Amino acid sequence: MNGVTPLFLSGPGASEAFLVARVLFGVVLAFMGLNHFQNADSMSGYAEMKGVPAASLAVPFTGGMLLFGGLGILLGVFPVLAAGAIVAFLVVTTPLMHDFWAVPEDQQQDEMTAFLKNVAMLGAALAFLAAGSAEWAYAVGVGL
C-alpha cells in the first residue's frame, strides 16, 4: 500500500488496527450471510411472520448481501459497494425485523438487544463506507 492510510487512520499501528477491525467485522458478517443459506427455512418462516414479502427469496438475497459485504470489507474488494450493501441491509432490516416496540412484552428485550446490535453494526458499516474511498493497507485492492 506504500504507507498510505485514510486520513483518520494515522499513527503507529493504525493500519494494523484497521485490519483487525476489517477481519472481525467482515468475518461476522460473512458468517451471518452463510447462516441465511444454511438456515433458510427457519429464517424464511421468521421473516414471513414479520411480514416480509417473498420471504423465501428475501432471505437468500439478504444472505448474499451479508456474504458479499463481509468478504468485501474483509479482503478490501470493492469496499464502497461492500459497505454500502451492509448499510442498505441494516437500514431496511433493523426496524422491520427487530421492532421491539411492537412485540409482546416477553419478547421486547430480545428484540431490543438485536435492534441495538444492528444499530452498532450500522455505525461500523458507515465508518467502513466513509473509509472506502481511501487506500486500505493489507487489502486485495480491487475497487479501491
UniProtKB/TrEMBL annotation:
Report keywords, A-Z: Membrane, Transmembrane, Transmembrane helix
**Superkingdom as given in the UniProt entry:** Archaea
List all membrane-crossing ranges. 17-34, 54-75, 115-139
**Record keywords: Hydrolase included?**
no
What is the protein's given name? Uncharacterized membrane protein YphA, DoxX/SURF4 family
> Which Pfam family name is an example for this entry?
DoxX
InterPro entries (UniProt xref):
DoxX
Q: What's the main place this protein lives?
A: membrane
Task: State the compartments where it is located.
Answer: Membrane
Membrane protein topology class: Multi-pass membrane protein
GO CC annotations?
A: membrane
Tell me the organism: Natronoarchaeum philippinense
